[in-house]
Amino acid sequence: MILFLMASLAFGIGSDRCQVEDCVCEVREAAVTHAEQSVTVTFDENSAFLSMASRAELDRLGASGSPLYVSGYTDECGDADHNYDLSRERAAAVTSYLRYRNRRVVSVKYYGETKSARHGREDRRVIVSTRRDPISRAMDAVKADVYLIDASGSLAGRWSDISGYDFPAGSKIILSKMTNCLDGSRIDQVTPSGGTEIWYSYWHTVSRMSYGQRLMIVSDFQSNLPLTASEYRTIEELVARKGVKVHTVKY
């Protein structure tokens, strides 16, 4: 209750600026998505060996002339430096196979550890994507339970890529929107515009999440009203209490 009262005081001014309740709007996936644009292959623990099943999965990628973007990851088990090297080895193994199959790899990146509540195979992976948009490629890094997307005017030039993203089945899509958004709309029916109260939306989104869920935020984090240090601590306390794992894509 105390934390709720603190939040009400800290973020009350954000509420005054939003015509949409709490500056959040829950929407549905677009009618047509880009589901064919990425493939994920996973690895055994501490291994960069590409299995036959993974090779078959890579073979199902789209047209052979499409440019491919490769991104490697590991789980959090073990030394961080070793994991960074392991993510590079996994990305290299996938890249070598794709090039052997005469596929056009235009980018190879490796990121080391994935921040996760779990120690699972899904974190020991390489993602291969044909997405040209770097934001939607970055969104591939984690399969979240909830996506909070800044729908202000700053994302207008990239909205078709984001709105056409193939969100994981069962995930929730929340827009941070001050005006002109109805719950239950399809994301491709919403036009990004105006400013943003992303921090206020962040607070209310986490408040509604279940313990231990993953949240991905896509935003430039340039709120109309800058967050104070005490307000930031209030959000951090709520995130810790809810056990929410937060991932961000900053554009």
Describe this structure as you would to a colleague.
The structure is a single chain. With 251 residues, the chain is an alpha/beta fold. It folds into 2 domains: 2-32 and 142-250, no CATH class; 35-130, 60s Ribosomal Protein L30, Chain: A (2-Layer Sandwich). It is built from 7 helices and 9 strands, in the order H-E-E-H-E-H-E-E-H-E-H-E-H-E-H-E. It has helices at 2-16, 52-59, 80-100, 134-139, 159-163, 198-207, 229-242; strands at residues 24-27, 38-42, 67-74, 104-113, 125-129, 146-150, 172-176, 214-219, 245-250. A 5-stranded mixed sheet has the order 1-7-6-8-9. It has a 4-stranded mixed sheet with strand order 2-5-3-4. Helix 1 crosses helix 7 and helix 6 (198-207) packs parallel to helix 7 (229-242). The longest helix has 21 residues, at 80-100. It starts with a helix and ends with a strand. Mean pLDDT is 85; it is low at 1-10.
Provide a compact summary of the structure.
The chain has 251 residues and is of the alpha/beta class. Helices cover 31% and strands 22% of the residues. The chain has two domains: 140 residues, no CATH class; 96 residues, 60s Ribosomal Protein L30, Chain: A.
